[in-house]
Amino acid sequence: MKSSNTVLIALFAALIVVLSLIPPIPLPAIPVPITLQTLGAMLAGAMLGPVRGALACLLYLALAAIGLPVLPGGRGGLGAFLGPTGGFLVGLVAGAFVTGWLARRLAARAAGAAQVAGYVAACVVGGIAVVYAFGVPWLAAVAKMDLAKAALAVAVFVPGDLIKAVVAAWVASRVERAWPMLGR
């Protein structure tokens, strides 16, 4: 791996840490708070591509697993992966990979509004659908909820996640203009 790739992976892992440390917003009756972690995973995938984006998320999770307080609320350690948000954490890696893979196919060759739309689609599928595909069943199992009830409980996060997808798409398209990274 080139040193520039290592630096980019570390930089985006640090970005996810910063976004995670912005105080989470707890919601009543739902053990999962509103955070900006998924924005970081979307940005990593959209801007770095599938492998480097997933590695940035994996590095972030490794830092959390060894006990550094990098998760929302200053949490860290393996216990965070066993709680109701554990599936969402694991889903960040797959979500960044899918976001990057789709961004390469939908946005890399496009320009203008089509490029932004490609990034939005990549972020919605990878950063929302894939992350939720890991997180909702995990939440249902840990919280001993019915799967449909868990899906309904996290539905309140969808509007905010859609906003994050648009923000990530806009940022990725602007950076891609000035400093193309998807082609590398």
From TrEMBL:
Keywords recorded for this protein, A-Z: Cell membrane, Membrane, Transmembrane, Transmembrane helix, Transport
Gene Ontology MF annotations: biotin transmembrane transporter activity
Chief site of localization: membrane
TM spans (from-to): 55-72, 78-104, 116-138, 150-172
Recorded topology in the membrane: Multi-pass membrane protein
Pfam families, sorted: BioY
Gene Ontology CC terms, in alphabetical order: plasma membrane
Localization annotation: Cell membrane
Similarity section: Belongs to the BioY family.
Name this polypeptide is given: Biotin transporter
Species of the source: Achromobacter agilis
